[in-house]
Amino acid sequence: MVVCGGGYVGFTTLNGMLNPPDYKGEGTGSVTVWIHEGDSVSQMALRMKQAGVVKSVDAFVKLATKDTRATSIQPGYYHLRREMSVKSALALLLSDASRAGRVTVPEGKRVVQVLQMLSKKTKIPLKDFQKAARHPEKLGLPSYAKGKLEGYLYPFTYDPDPKATATQVLRSMVDQFKRVATSIDLEGKARQLGVSPGDVVTIASLAQAESGRDEDMPKIARVIDNRIHNSQPWMKKLQLDSTVMYGLGKYNIVASHADTQSTSLYNTYRFPGLPPTAIDNPGEVALKAALNPAKGNWLYFVTTDPKRHITKFAYSYQDFLKLKQELVNNMEHG
Known about the structure:
The protein is mainly alpha-helical. Helix content is 44%, strand content 9%. It has 13 helices and 6 strands. The longest helix is centred in the middle third of the chain and has 18 residues, at 166-183. The model is unreliable at 1-15 (pLDDT under 50).
């Protein structure tokens, strides 16, 4: 009897290993599962089993080890169903359609644009994000932001908790900015340059807005620095179309003469120095460019071919005029 019992138990155990229990079909209802950064396949399986999605960890692991796509599963929140077959569960984990609110915010977007993107992806009403943005004191901004949100919603890919509030989502973006700022020693390097960290963010936003390619950003940062510290008062006016457009709430590439007559404090044709705040949310490349401007005596730059993202730099006003004409010619020829 003992031998028979032992044999039965051994067979059952072996059968369970070779054919672990699994549900059939695509499941029912709805459940959200959070796959954490760095989760192994077995950890993913355990989270799903605990949520009632799959019947056993072993069944999912067995399938996933045979499917190389399983290694591409990204962290985040997933909308799954209860009592799914492991095949169905794996298919949803590999589908972007099941991702809960993942949003990728590209570099150079303004706060108003970011809020719209977040609302669309998270399904949180836009008015909630707008209200949260009006209370920056709740978002954990660094002191040098001086209560201004523009420049500090870091461009990144986020997987907000489906239950998160608008304030929590925005705070996570500010937290990401602070992590990046720490990693590049923004405050320490700003002190070495003799500028405030807030000005670094503003300069980075200008470089982000004005550049067509990453490699142009350090040069643009240098032009800005050369202009601001120029001995000629009129040179301190940066004359950047991007700041004019920001102040007017427009998105054109080139400011018209009428635009440059604006009384907005962001009109750098009228007012010297940097604009009052950043004009977009710059990424790491732009922040590093602001902290490490290229070496050069350039005083002007023109994006001569916007479609091909070509920016050229000049030392003299005469060369600057030639570059402007090159831009006009390219615009006329489409």
